[in-house]
UniProtKB/TrEMBL annotation:
Positions annotated to bind Zn(2+): 149, 153, 225
Cofactor or coenzyme needed: Zn(2+)
This protein's UniProt keywords: Cell membrane, Hydrolase, Membrane, Metal-binding, Metalloprotease, Protease, Transmembrane, Transmembrane helix, Zinc
EC numbers on record: 3.4.24.-
InterPro entries in alphabetical order: HtpX_protease, Pept_M48_protease_HtpX, Peptidase_M48
TM regions (residue ranges): 12-31, 43-63, 161-184, 196-219
Record protein name field: Protease HtpX homolog
Record GO biological process: proteolysis
Broad class of the protein's primary localization: membrane
Pfam families from the UniProt entry: Peptidase_M48
């Protein structure tokens, strides 16, 4: 068993248990506050709110794939497609490597930036989408590595897992929102007096807690993204190297000035990291192999600061490159 994989699973497991325990303790405390000492009444109120939040999330989960397709103008491709039949074969190959009895449906997404994502539901089935710039930018081996990452999300049921964890801040948010406005209206009409102010204060505090929980969600998302990287490296031949190259190519595509920045070019020191998505194929090809390898080498030795990815749902690229190196070295 790969030690890096064991360590990642332990961190995810401990993080999940910690989140559940803290959430239960928090919700029990909220129930006590709401009930005025009668825990059963408070739990009843929270349960009612939880059912509402759960219903909304289940609806989004079941019908979300159709909304995603509409937003990205995604259309399905099949093996008979003269232009993209090879992509369906590639997805099927990676799916077999990942133990899927039936490969996910394949979609081309009309977005102006290179990306791939996995999604699905019991109604819509499993799906994977690739944008046109990604198809132009990445070669077949790099695409296979990216697909190994995306199918890792489906294999690990990350959509369902993160939705379940996301119920906690959603529940806390709506409890806080309801209590805040209950306190405001109660105080405004003089019906509750000081109790209205107390409810408003509790509501505002819960809104703050729900905001802090978003950092927990981002942390869990980063762990699952790292887990998907590992999945690709362990299931697709030569995926570690090809996934590194794909990540570097996408970064250079989004911001062609990256190489100048890591060299600390005087003309670029004042320029912040911006998302820039050129659509000209000629510009895409200008990201040379030398630039790709230079960026990967830079990431290999770079140590990200703790705050550099705290607001991101993906690990810092340097962390991803270094993890993939460790996985490939231990195979």
């Amino acid at each position: 068993m790969n030690w890096e994989l064991i360590k990642l699973r332990l961190v995810m497991g401990l993080s999940g248990v910690t989140i559940v325990l803290l959430s239960v303790a928090l919700l029990v405390g909220i129930a006590e506050l709401l009930s005025g000492g009668s825990l059963a009444v408070g739990l009843y109120l929270i349960s009612g709110m939880l059912v509402l939040v759960l219903a909304i999330n289940i609806f989004q989960w079941l019908f979300g794939p159709y909304m995603i397709n509409a937003a990205y103008r995604a259309h399905e491709v099949t093996q008979d497609d003269p232009s993209y039949g090879w992509l369906v074969d590639l997805v099927s190959e990676v799916a077999r490597d990942n133990g899927f009895s039936k490969p996910p449906k394949v979609y081309i997404a009309e977005a102006p930036f290179p990306n791939a994502f996995a999604y699905g539901s019991p109604i819509a089935g499993r799906r994977v989408a690739i944008t046109r710039p990604a198809l132009r930018l990445l070669n077949k081996d790099e695409l296979a590595a990216v697909l190994g990452h995306e199918l890792g999300h489906l294999r690990h049921r990350d959509v369902e897992l993160l939705m379940a964890i996301g119920l906690i801040p959603a529940l806390i948010y709506w409890l806080g929102y309801s209590l805040m406005w209950s306190g405001i209206w109660g105080g405004a009409w003089g019906e509750r007096g000081n109790n209205g102010l107390s409810l408003m204060a509790i509501g505002v505090a819960l809104l703050g807690v729900s905001f802090l929980f978003q950092f927990v969600l981002l942390y869990m998302n980063r762990l699952r993204e790292a887990y998907a990287d590992v999945n690709s490296a362990l299931t697709v031949p030569n995926a570690a190297k090809n996934l590194q190259r794909a990540l570097a190519k996408i970064t250079l595509y989004m911001d062609p000035r990256t190489i100048a920045k890591i060299k600390k070019s005087p003309t670029n020191n004042m320029v912040k990291m911006l998302f820039f998505a050129p659509t000209d194929d000629k510009i895409v090809r200008e990201a040379s192999d030398a630039d790709v390898e230079e960026l990967i080498e830079y990431w290999r030795s770079y140590k990200p600061k703790p705050w550099e990815d705290i607001l991101s749902d993906h690990p810092h690229p340097a962390k991803r490159i270094q993890l993939l190196d460790k996985i490939s070295q231990s195979q």
